[in-house]
Amino acid sequence: MSVLEAKPTEYVCRSALPTGPEELVLTARKVWLGRTTLVARALPDRDIRMIGAWCFLDHYGPEDVSDAPGMQVYAHPHTGLQTVSWLVEGEIEHRDSLGTQAMVSPGALNIMTAGRGIVHSEISQPDKPPTLHGVQLWVALPDAVRDTAPRFDRYTDLPRLDRDGVRGQVLVGEVDGVRSPTISFTPLVGADLSLDPGAQVELAVAADHEHGVFVVAGGLTCGDQATATTDQLVYLGTGRDRLRLIGGEQGCRALLLGGEPFAEEIVMWWNFIGRSHDEVAGFRRQWEVRDQRFPPVVDRRERVMEAPTMPTVPLKARPRRPRDRPTPAAADHVEGSR
Ligand code: MN
Q: Ligand 1 mean position to 4 CA, how many Å?
C-alpha cells in the first residue's frame, strides 16, 4: 500500500497525550489509490494522528474486481515504519527488495519492517479472486530501531480469540489474555473481531494503552455509548482495563487497535517516516536517484512509482479542537455518538 495522492500532505504526528478515557467517533475520508482502488483512510485523522504507534489505516473494498485490475500499487519505497497487511477477501501479490514474493491472502498476516529502507509492490494477479477487501496499516518505528535492517514476516497461524458473542484473531500484542507472537517494536495491540448481532462483550486490555475500534463491516457500540458503522473509527483514549463492545443489528467486523502512546514526534510524508522535513526530503532525493538505501524489487522490469513534489510547509501537529475534548455534559454532541 502506498500514498498515491498527487500532492500528499506532510504530517507532523505524535500520539495523543494520555488524558484518560474518551469517546470520539471519526469518519474515514475517501482517497483514490491510483486510478484503480478507492480506500477509506482513517489514520492519520485531522485530530487523531496516531493510536499508539499505529499511524496509518486504509480500508479498501469489498470491491468486485472480476472485470477490473484490482490493486495495482507499483514499486515504491518506505522508511521508518512497518506495513501490516490483512485481507478479508481476495489475494494480492507482494514483492520487495529483499527478494520476497508472497501472497497477501485472508488469514495470513504480512508485516514488512522497512527499517532504514525497503521497496515493494502490491499487485492483483490476472487469476485473482473476484472480490478484493482488506486493510493496510502502518506502524511507526521508534527512534532506537528505525534504522534497523529491513525484513519481511508472514504469519499464517495467528492465535484465536473466541468468547461468547465474539470470534477473532489477535494480530499483534495481547487482548483478553490471548497473545500474538508477531514482531513489534513498541507496546502495541491489534485484533480482528467479529461480533454477533446484539452480542455484549468485555475484553481485557492494557489500561496504559490508548485504544481505537475501526468498523470494517456492520456496526457496533463501544466504550459507554459511542456507536459507529462501516469506515468509522471510535477513539477511546487511555485508562481502560476492559473494553466494552456491543454488536449492532447486523453484527460487526472490527479492528481493535491500541498501544502505548507514541511520545516521539514523527514527520510522515508520502511513503516515508522521518523526524524532520529535511530528513524526509533526503529520503525523497535518495529514491529519485535510486540510492542503495532503496534497492530494486525482485523483478527489475516492474513499474515504479516516482515521488511527488514535497510541500514547502509541513502540516504541524496542533492541539485538538474543543469539540474533541467532550466533557460528560457535552458528550451528546460528539460527532456520531448516540
Ligand atoms: Mn507500500
A: 10
Domain with 173 in it: what CATH number?
A: 2.60.120.10
Does residue 331 belong to any structural domain of this protein? no
Burial 109-148 (b: 16+ CB within 10 A, else e): bbbbbbbebbbbbbbbeeebbebbbbbbbbbbbeeeebee
> Would you mind telling me the total number of residues written for the chain in this entry?
338
Residues flanking ion ligand 1, Cβ below 5 Å: 1-2
For residue 120, the CA-to-ligand 1 centroid distance in Å is 6
Count: domains in the chain:
1
Q: What is the pTM of this model?
A: 0.91
Give the distance (Å) from ligand 1 centre to CA of residue 28.
19
Cα-to-centroid distance, 73 and ligand 1 (Å): 8
Dist. CA 199 → ligand 1 center (Å):
36
> In which domain, by residue range, is 135 found?
11-259
Largest CA distance in the chain: 60
Going by pLDDT thresholds of 50, 70 and 90, the confidence category of residue 15 is confident
Taking alpha carbons only, the member of 249, 257, 292 closest to residue 118 is 292
In a domain, 226, yes or no: yes
* Residue 191 near residue 169, CB atoms below 8 Å: yes
Domain presence at residue 291: no
Query: What is the whole-number distance in angstroms between the Cα of residue 121 and the centre of ligand 1?
Result: 7
Q: Is 281 a member of any domain?
A: no
Q: What is the DSSP letter of 119?
A: E
User: How many angstroms is it from 78 CA to the middle of ligand 1?
Assistant: 7
Among residues of the chain, what percentage have pLDDT more than 70? 90
